[in-house]
Amino acid sequence: MAEPTLEVRNLRTHFFTRAGVVKAVDDVSFTVERGKVLGLVGESGSGKSVTGFSIIGLVDPPGRIAGGQILFKGKDLARISEEEMRSLRGNRIAMIFQDPMMTLNPVLRIDTQMIETVQAHRNCSTEEARQRARDTLGMVGIPSPDERLKSYPHQFSGGMRQRVAIAIALLHEPELIIADEPTTALDVTIQGQILAEVQKLAATTGTSLIWITHDLSVVAGLADDIAVMYAGRIVEKGAVSEVLDTPLHPYTAGLIGSVPSRNKRGEPLRQIPGMTPSLLNLPPGCAFRTRCPRAADACMAEPAIEQILPGREVRCFRPLTGAAEQAA
Amino acid sequence: MTVYLVRRLIQALFVVLAMSVIVFVGVFAIGDPVEILISPDADQIERERAVQALGLDLPLWQQYLVFLGNALQGDLGRSFVFNEPALKLILQRMPATLELAFGAMFLSILIGLPLGLYAGLRPNAPASKAIMAGSILGFSLPTFWVGLMLIMVFAVQLGWLPSTGRGDTGTLFGLHWSFLTVDGLAHMAMPALNLALFKISLVIRLTRAGVRETMLMDYVKFARAKGLSPARVTFVHVFKNILIPVVTVVGLELGSTIAFSVVTESVFAWPGMGKLIIDSINVLDRPVIVAYLMIIVLMFITINLIVDLTYSMLDPRVRLETKGT
Q1: pTM of the complete model
Q2: What is the DSSP secondary-structure string of A7-45?
Q3: ipTM score for this prediction
Q4: Chain A residues within 8 A of B217 when measuring between CB atoms
Q5: Do B225 and A90 lie within an 8 Å CB cutoff?
Q6: Do B219 and A90 count as a contact with CB atoms less than 8 A apart?
Q7: Which residue segment(s) compose the domain that B189 sits in?
C-alpha cells in the first residue's frame, strides 16, 4: 500500500496552565490513507479540535506539542520550522472551521481573502489568482461567482459562507483537509448538501479528510474510518460500519445509545451518566471508569489501546465482545 | 446616502438651535459685563448710554432674538473689549489652535498605534509592560504640570526648544501656519506633545485592547490556517478591524482637543482660541464667549458626521442608507 497521507504517532499536546498541565491530547495515534475520510468523534473537550490544530501547527501558548510524531507524507510536522509549516498550511494541508459566521474576516471582501490565499503559496498575478478563486467558488456550488467575489461576508448566508470557507481550503488542492465540525452550525438540508459536495471532492481529487464532529450520523454517512476520543485519548478506532454496528468500548456504545432514532421511539433515551471529567483532574486508571456501566476493579489501572479483533483497536479492559453483550 | 446626509444636517440644525439657547442663557447668568466694562466713575447717564449701545437694556428673550437674527446673517456680535466682530477674532486665532490639535492627533496616532500594536501582540514582553505603565502616567499626570515640566527640561535646562509663542509662520490659503517653517515646528513641538500625551495613552490602550480581542477571533486563526505570513495577518486582518474603534475615539477626541486646548495654550502662551476664550471669560466678553461656543458646537457636529462617514468606509457592515425605515 502507498504511503499514507497522514500518520499520527503517540501525539501529546499539553497546555501548561497555572492550574496545572492539561493533557488535551494524550497519546493519540491514527492513520489517514490517501482519499480516505477519518471521522474523529467525541464530546466537547475530548481533545478532537486540539488534535486538528496540532496537525496544522496552530496550537497557541500555553499549549504545545509535548511529544509524538505527525508524519505528513513521511515528514514529521512536529519537528519542522514555523516557516516550513506555513508553506504547508492552506497549501497542502487546509482547515475548515466550525462557525462560518466567524471564519471570514468581516471587513475584507471575499476576493481579497481568496486572492491572498492563492498568492501566499503561488507566485502569480492577481488576475490569475482571481481566476483561480472564481473557478473554485464555482466548484463548491456558488452561483455567479464573479459577483460574489466582490461581496463582503455579511452578504452571504451561513451555508454560503461555509462554502466560501471550503472553497478557500480547496484553492491549492490540498492533500489533507481538517474539517472541524464544519456543518454543526448549519441547517440540516445545507449540511446534507455540503457533505455530499465534500464527499464528491474528496473522491475526485484524492484528498484525505479528517472530519471532526460530535455527530455520529454525519460520520456514519461520510467517513471510512472512525476514531472515538474521550478525555484526550482515543478509546476506540476502526472501520465506520464495524464500530457503529458493534461498538467495543462502553463509551462508544453509550454515544450510539444517546442518538435518538425511530426504532427506539417511545423508550427513554439512554444517556451516559455524569459529565466529561475535567482534564486537570482525571480519575486515576481509565478516565471513563466513573461513568462506565461495566467498570470493575481492573479499571483502576490505566488501559492501553490494543487490537483485540482484526482492524479493531480499543482502550478497555472489559470491552463489549460477545454478541449477547452487544444486544444487552 | 443623500437622504442620510440631509437628515443629519436637519438634526444638526436643531442641535445648534438648542445649544444657542443654552449658551445664551448660561452666559447671561454668569454676570453683568457692564460692571466690568464701564469705569466705576461713570455717572448714570453715561452708564445707560453704554448699556443701550450694547443692547443690554432689552429683556433676555429680545436680546436672544436679536442675536439669532444677526447670527443668521453671519454676525455673531461684536466683542465688547476689542470692538471687532467676535467671529473674526475667533477665526483669526483658529489656525493656531487647529494646527496644534491636528499636530497632537497626528502624534497620538504616530506614537500610539505602533506601541499599542506591539503591546497587544506581545502582551507579556517587558517592553509591553513598560508601555502600559507609561500609558497610565499619560492618563493621570495633569496636562499643565507636564507642560511646565517640558518647559523646564527642554526650554530652560537643555535650551533645545522655545517655550512660548508660535515662532515664524508660513502662509497657506491666506492664513498663517507654524507648521510650514522649521522655527514654527520647533515652537509647536512641545505644546503639541503636551496636548497629545493623554491621547497617545488612549490610543495605546484602545489599540492594545483591540488587538488582544481580535487575535482571538476565528477569522484570525483561519487567516493563519491559510498560510498567510504573520505580517499579512497582523497588518491586514487584525489592523483593519481595530481601526474602527480607534477612528471613533480619535475622531471624537479631536473635537475635545480643539475645545479644551485651553490649558496647553495658556501654559505655552500659544495664541489660539483657547487663550482667547479664557481672556474673554475673565472680562465677561459675552459675544466672544457665545460665538466661540457656537463654533465649537458646529465643529463637534461636523466631526461626528465625518466619523460616521469614515465608519462606512472601514466597516462594510455599516451602511448609511436607511432602507425601508
Answers
A1: 0.76
A2: EEEEEEEEEEETTEEEEEEEEEEEEE-TT-EEEEE--TT
A3: 0.83
A4: 102
A5: yes
A6: no
A7: 89-314
